[in-house]
Amino acid sequence: GQLGCTAVTQALKYLTRVLDETLRMFPPVVTFTTRSAANDIEYDGLKYQAGTNFLSPTIQVHMDPRIWPEPEKFNPDRFLPENVAARPTIAYQPFGGGPRNSVWHSSKTSTQVKGWWKSSSSLWESLKRVV
User: Fold this and answer.
1) Helix 99-119 crosses helix 121-130 at what angle (to 10 degrees)?
2) Cross-strand bridge partners of residue 97
3) What is the distance of C-alpha 113 from the center of its chain?
């Protein structure tokens, strides 16, 4: 049968969630997020002065059960829009917290769409007739 736009859109959304969950569990690179304290802070009973540098390994954040319930379980629904909105943006950083992460977010869907177009010749032929 033929695929309609709605079915394709839903499939791509699910595929994106699967990719995100895979990268959460298995980040492709060993990355660390670094931050400096803007002010004096106290955390977990310890005091830190402004300017103190902090280093956080990505995998530790990705497997933190306070952020990701049952972190060892594969669950693409963690990336449903309502679940993404409920957690800090820094909680998911498969390529680190800098510009590489932004490149991933902006390119992943277009890459999926290009691959799908190439593999769907009947739809491609239909679209060429319309255009």
Assistant:
1) 90
2) none
3) 17
